[in-house]
Amino acid sequence: MGRGWVLIVVCVCGASACQLLADLHDVSLATEAGVDAASDVSSDVAPEAAPCEMCGGSKCVDFSNDVTNCGFCGHACAGCAGTLCPVETIASFDSAAALAVDDTNVYVGDVSGVHAVVKASKTVSLISPVFWPQDLTTSNGRVYAATPWAIVNMAPDGGDLRDVYARAYDGGTNIFTSVVVAEPTIYWGSQGGIFVASTDGGNERELVSEDAGYLPSCIGVDSTSVYFTEPQRLDVTRAPLDGAPPSQLGSSIAQPTCLAVGAGVVYWGDIFRLYATGTGIDGGTHALVSEDVVYDMTLHADRIYFAVLGSLPNSGAIFTMPIAGGAPTLLAKADSPARLVADDAFVYWLENTSSNPSTLKRVAR
Questions:
Q1: DSSP codes, 52-70
Q2: Is 108 helix (H, G, I), strand (E, B) or coil?
Q3: Please, are residues 126 and 138 in contact by the beta-carbon 8 Å criterion?
Q4: What pTM was computed for the model?
Q5: Is residue 122 a contact partner of residue 99, using CB atoms and an 8 Å limit?
Q6: Backbone angles phi, psi at 305, to 5 degrees
Q7: Which end of the chain, N or C, is surrounded by fewer C-beta atoms within 10 Å?
Q8: In 3D, which of 348, 326, 337, 347 has the Cα closest to residue 276?
Q9: CA gap 301, 337 in Å, rounded
């Protein structure tokens, strides 16, 4: 595993975002468990007094087998072994490309449509035969799918299915690649631009024109802007919601792959590193982790979760780190991890192998 490095940048941004970026530095990607930077380390017990780590006051734990602190403080699971919780294989799909989660189900999009996987029972049902969703998201009890030629809004059981936006295929239609909802608005990317509409399908317009020559591959949104990775331009681009022209937010020497938007910070990956960039003008960029391809990521509660494709077969992994700063920790070993989502209990991901099928897996968060 590689070492993290820091790109020192003078921040001109909001105080809280700059402080967070300042805290996120000098990080190495540890495949062995490290102490969570936010842990409450007590002075009552000297860490060198025993082969254990400090979690919560004076409790000294062994991360390698503690069921309430497996790998890092507060990470609970049954069957902790060697700092890792057991990984469950939930179901298999045909060339799955999309993943989303709500309180009850995990949703998977593959060549046959959108499937719902009940978390409690692990039962799988096809809820919509829409063609090969490229991205999924959930909001307010609804499921939204970006298919090659339509953005579809459906109930979790597949009922009340309707198009937010659709256009006829004419041989040269740009494919819709990603979708995100910030109620009451939905945003989606095509192989060319960014669209915005009401979640019920009204007031559709182009936020970034398809004639502008962008190729959004992953999008996120906050109260001021849409952010998207741009693999052709090797950057992360910001498109203000007020219609102002798009501008570069952060750049890389390699193809960016994914992003997630936090409070005043955009986290994004490329084929070499994981970065954090302030959303303000000249917000500054820090490289958090140096590794192989950071394929996907998600934020949940106070942690970042990201999937890494290894340089060798069967060398992929799922990592986590505190948003407030601290060393990344190995959460699970993986084959070829792709899409990644999290809820209060688990991190879910798709593994796509050359032999097919795609598998849905999960591990305690």
A1: SEE-SBT-EE-TTT-TTSS
A2: strand
A3: no
A4: 0.84
A5: no
A6: -125, 135
A7: N
A8: 326
A9: 22
Tokens standing for residue 208 = 């970034």
The DSSP call for residue 175 is: P
- pLDDT in the model for residue 268: 94
- Among the residues of the chain, which ranges form H helices? 15-23
Nearest CA among 71, 141, 146, 61 for reference residue 102: 141
Residue 338 and residue 62 in contact, taking contact as beta carbons nearer than 8 Å? no
Helix (H, G, I), strand (E, B) or coil at 85: coil
Lowest mean pLDDT, pick from 31-40, 134-143, 240-249, 250-259: 31-40
CA distance to 84, 105, 300, 363, per residue, from 77 (Å): 9, 21, 18, 9
Q: Summarize pLDDT for 103-131 with one digit per residue, the tens.
A: 999 999 999 999 999 999 999 999 999 98
Strand partners, 226: 221, 239
* Structure confidence at residue 190 (pLDDT): 86
Cβ-proximal residues to 290 (8 Å cutoff; 6+ apart), any chain: 2, 3, 4, 5, 29, 272, 273
Tokens of 283: 């917000």
Instruction: Please count the residues of the chain.
Output: 365
What pLDDT digit, counting tens, does each position of 5-47 carry? Answer: 333 232 334 444 444 444 444 443 433 333 333 333 333 334 4
